[in-house]
Specification:
Layout: H1 9-12, H2 21-28, H3 45-50, E1 66-67, E2 70-71, H4 77-89, H5 101-110, H6 117-125
Antiparallel strand pairs: 1-2
Length: 138
């Protein structure tokens, strides 16, 4: 039978070898191929925004949010949508998810919560979207 090896604390936890500092320094030096391209990262927010404009334009244009195939409100419908947005965000008239705006207004009216008449008029007369602000986003 072979002699038994010593299995003590020192043998189990081997001592760490000293590494050659020159080797580690050489391995830490990065070549241009492995370096991160820091030059292409914009230094400020304004530089990043300025580069996102159209060719030859100095003005920065905001991106268009498209939800359910329709763009954000623009022009004359902006005031109408703002009033309807305020109605959607007001939780005193009950929850609005899964319920069209007009149906929510009628439910709030039946419960005696006194929703604004202007909202009902805007929904019936204007070409407002029947869905609430949070529809499709939550």
């Amino acid at each position: 039978m072979a002699p038994r090896k010593k299995t003590g604390m020192k043998e189990f936890y081997g001592q760490k070898k000293k590494t050659n500092t020159e080797k580690t320094k050489k391995s830490q030096v990065r070549t241009p191929g492995t370096k991160r391209q820091v030059d292409t990262i914009p230094t400020t927010y304004n530089e990043a925004r300025a580069s996102s404009g159209t060719l030859g334009s100095s003005a920065v244009q905001p991106t268009t949010l498209v939800a359910y195939g329709r763009k954000d409100c623009t022009g004359d419908t902006e005031e109408v949508e703002e009033v309807l947005r305020q109605f959607d965000m007001n939780m005193t008239y009950g929850p609005c998810l899964g319920v069209p705006r007009l149906e929510r207004w009628e439910r709030a009216n039946k419960l005696g919560l006194n929703p604004p008449k202007q909202v009902k008029d805007l929904m019936e007369n204007a070409h407002a979207t029947p869905d609430c602000l949070w529809e499709g986003r939550v």
